[in-house]
Design brief:
The chain has 6 helices and no strands. It is mainly alpha-helical. It comes from Euphydryas editha. This is Lipid scramblase CLPTM1L.
């Protein structure tokens, strides 16, 4: 995150400066709002990337539980539907399709790295009682 942020802060500042100098705006408020929205889109992208790096470094997708993966898939699908149906700014549509690119990389990593079947699903074990998971200790009389 630190290295991505070090790259993204100057890019957001340069984009805001470019917008100020070369794009027409109705006023300072319009420019500031446009710059902040573009920063939010950029940092939304930044928050999606660390999982890709974790999967790459571990050579495993075990750090991304199946439930979270399906949530991301469903969320990406809904975003795409609304990007086509609703009239919205181009920057928001690009942000939606950028999420698709990250999702496709997730799918590729899920295909590339094998899933360890012997690994305990931590999300499923949190639902159970911890007493049931520990062996019963018998008292010596």
């Amino acid at each position: 995150m630190r290295y991505l942020a070090m790259l993204l802060y100057p890019l957001c500042a340069a984009g805001a400066l470019y917008s100020l100098l070369y794009e027409p705006h109705k006023g300072w408020y319009s420019w500031a709002l446009h710059s902040v929205v573009n920063g939010v889109y950029a940092f939304g992208f930044l928050l999606m990337l660390p999982q890709l790096f974790v999967n790459y470094r571990l050579r495993s997708v075990a750090a991304l539980p199946w439930r979270a993966f399906m949530y991301k898939a469903f969320n990406t699908f809904i975003d795409d539907v609304f990007a086509f149906v609703i009239t919205m700014p181009t920057a928001h549509r690009v942000a939606c399709f950028r999420d698709d690119l990250v999702f496709l990389v997730y799918l590729y990593q899920r295909w590339l790295y094998p899933v360890d079947k012997t690994r305990t699903d931590t999300a499923a074990s949190m639902d159970e009682n911890p007493e049931e998971l520990e062996p019963i200790k018998q008292k010596d009389d």
